[in-house]
Amino acid sequence: MTIIDEQGRPEPPADGDETAMLLGFLEFHRATLAWKVRGLDAAGLRATVGASTMTLGGMLKHLALVEASWFAEDLFGRPMGEPWDSVDWKADRDWDWHSAADDSPEMLLALWERTVDRSRALVAEALEDGGLDRPAARSWKDGRTPTLRWILVHMVEEYARHNGHADLIRESVDGETGE
User: Fold this and answer.
1) How many whole angstroms separate alpha carbon 135 and alpha carbon 145?
2) Are 166 and 45 in contact (CB under 8 A)?
3) What is the pLDDT of residues 68-112, one digit of tens each?
4) Is residue 6 part of a domain?
5) Is residue 31 part of a domain?
6) Among 100, 136, 167, 169, which is disulfide-ready with 58 (CB 3.0 to 4.6 Å)?
7) Of all residues in the chain, what percent are helix, strand and coil, respectively (each to 5)?
8) Closest by alpha carbon to 78, among 87, 67, 89, 91?
9) 111 is a domain residue
10) Rounded to two decimals, what is the model's pTM?
11) Would you say residue 108 lies in a domain?
12) Structural domain for 146, as ranges
């Protein structure tokens, strides 16, 4: 039985196996980001804190890129899809962050949700084809090849780090706070 907290986040299982724990914490952190952007308009998604140029809209687009990159491109060697495949990354390595200011809140959230749904399907496919030990299709420059397990742990770390940023930005927008 999945327990949903007051912010709509699924609590990770307290007694699940390794796969359930990894997926549980990743889903918790995905839901935390969704909570932090819920109900914000374009100005809220463009807000910054202090000297940082980081925005919640940029964070949504960046995490959509990270999802597509790790689960489609690295894990399976498949194209990330649009909008990523047609971006000139050499011209702007941070295009995901910069271009978000031109996108509507609805477009940003839809892109992130669509990409997360695709990632969930790709993780399910990988679990059936080797489980957590399934190696990625792409190796690193040093010759090592991460496994699905490593990618899932990395994704939990990626969301956890950015959710800390999201806490600060959301509080600056409307005072909403929470873990």
Assistant:
1) 6
2) no
3) 999 999 999 999 999 999 999 999 999 999 999 999 999 999 999
4) no
5) yes
6) 100
7) 60, 0, 35
8) 67
9) yes
10) 0.95
11) yes
12) 18-174
Residue 79: CATH number of its domain: 1.20.120.450
168, 79 contact by CB (below 8 A): no
> If you count them, how many residues does the chain have?
179
Residue where the block lists tokens 């980001």: 33
Structure tokens given for 165: 């940023």
Q: Which residues, including other chains, have CB under 8 Å from residue 34's CB and lie 6 or more apart?
A: 8
pLDDT per position as a tens digit, 136-151: 999 999 999 999 999 9
Chain-centre distance for alpha carbon 122: 14
Q: Which residue has the tokens 């909570």?
A: 35
Give the chain's domain count: 1
The first and second tokens of residue 178, run together, are 């929470």
Provide CB contacts within 8 A for 84, sequence distance 6+. 65, 68, 69
For 94, phi then psi, to 5°, come to -110, 35
